[in-house]
Amino acid sequence: MKVSNEDGTFRNTYFQFEQNGETLTGKLFGRNIQGTLIKGTVKDGTVHFETVPPVREAGTPPNDIQYRAVVFEGKIEGDKIELENVNRKLKGMAERTTKEAATPPAALPLPPLRNLPDNNLVRTPPMGWNSWNKFAGKVTAEDVRGMADAIVATGMDKLGYVYVNIDDTWEAGRDAQGNITTNRKFPDMKALVDYVHSKGLKVGIYSSPGPTTCAGYEGSFGHEVQDAKTYAAWGIDYLKYDLCGARTIYSSNEENHRGLYQKMGEALQQSGRPIVFSLCQYGENDPWKWGTETGGNLWRTTGDISDKWESMDRIGFSQIAISSYTRPGHWNDPDMLEIGNGGMTGDEYRTHMSLWSMLAAPLIAGNDLRSMSDETKSILMNKEVIAVDQDAAAKPVQVLASVSKVETLWRPMADGSIIVGVFNRGEDIATSNLQLSKIPGFAGKKLKMRDLWLHRDVPTKGDQYTALVPKHGVVLLKVRAQ
To answer: Out of 242, 307, 368, 389, which one is annotated catalytic?
Structure first.
C-alpha cells in the first residue's frame, strides 16, 4: 500500500493476505519483525480487516498505541485494492509485489562494545523545542523558523531554551553518492540551520538506526558515518536517534541496542562537530545503565507521552526510582513537554513542569510557541522552577512522604537549599501538612520557605506547613535555613 506523504515522498506498508471464502487472514509488516496478524472479510468486491493487537500484559498502560487495533477498509479494483487506514484517514492503492520487496535488509555487523569518551556537552539538562508533539509529520522549514523567532521574541532563549529540534519527516531519499537528502518541506537544510544559528540558537535533527524511521522515512542504517558528516556540514548541534526502524532487523536485547547506538555515537564523535546525542529507544533494556557508554547525553526512559493527565502522571512518577542515574552531561529523558497543547488543565501543566524539573529532565517544549497564552508562558518561563531543573549539583529526587494520593518529593540544591514538591495525584483538593523537621538536614533549624509558583515567601508556624493542593496540582517550595 503506497501512500503519499504530500512532501514528495511515499510510505509503503506491506500486507500478506490469505483468503478462504469470505474470510481474510494474514499479516501486516511494519515495525514488528514477525509481522502483525490481521483478520477480516472479503465480500462483494470490498475488504474489511483489522490488526490483532498483542495481549496486554498486566500493568501495561491502557493508552499504549501498539495495543490498539488498526482498521482498514478497501475496494477491489482488478488486481489492486483501494485501501484506507481508517484510524489515520490515510488512503492509498495496494498492489501485488514480491516477498523480497517486503523483506527488510539483513542486519549489518555491530561494533565490538566499548565505552566512548564523554563529549562534555549539556552539563545541565538540555532545553528547547521539538516539532513532534504539535506538528508531527506536518512540520515545515517555515514552522521551524517561526519557532526560532518566537523563542527569541518571548525571551525563552534567555532562560535556556536554545535547541530548536526538527523531529521525523524531514527526510527524502539518498542521492547517487548515498548522501541523505531533504524533502520539499525542507528545501535547504543548511540555510535553515544558518537562520536558526543567526538567532543565537542551536538546531537538532532526527534519524533512526534502521532503514526507515518511525514515520517510514529514510533512516541511517548502513550510512551512520556519512549521515553524521552531513549533519556536521549542515551545522547540526543535536541528534535524536529513534530505534523504531531497527526493530525490523535487530532483536531487542541490550547488546544489540548498545551496538546500534554506539555505532552512531562513534560517528558523531568523529564528525568534527560537537553534537548532543539523544537516545530514543523507550527505556528498553534499561538505557540509563549503559547510555553514557555509547556516547549518549540523554536517553528516553519510557514510551511516548501524550497530552493527557494519565500519561504525564504515569510517566513522571515512574522516574523517581531511576533518578540516581542522572548526572551532569547524562540525563534520564521521560519525553517532551506537552504544556500548552490543550489536553490538560493549568494545574496539571504546572505539575508537569514541576515534576520534570525535580527530575532534572530535559525541558523540551512541544507546543506552538507563536501563539502561547499568558498562562502557558508563565509555566514554561517560570525562572524559579527552571532553576530547579538546571541546578548544577544534579542531585536525584527522592520521596519524602506518600500519603493517599499526595506525594511529597525532595531534592537538594547546590546552594544548600532543598526543593520540596507536594503533588496531589487525587481527584479532589487535598490538604497537605508538611512536617518541617522531616526535611533532611533541617531538623531543629529555623527555616525560610518560598513558593516557586506564587513567587513569594510563605510563613511557617512551628514544625508544620499546611497547604491546600488542587486536584492534580502541586505546591513547589524552596526551603533553606535562616
So the answer is: 242
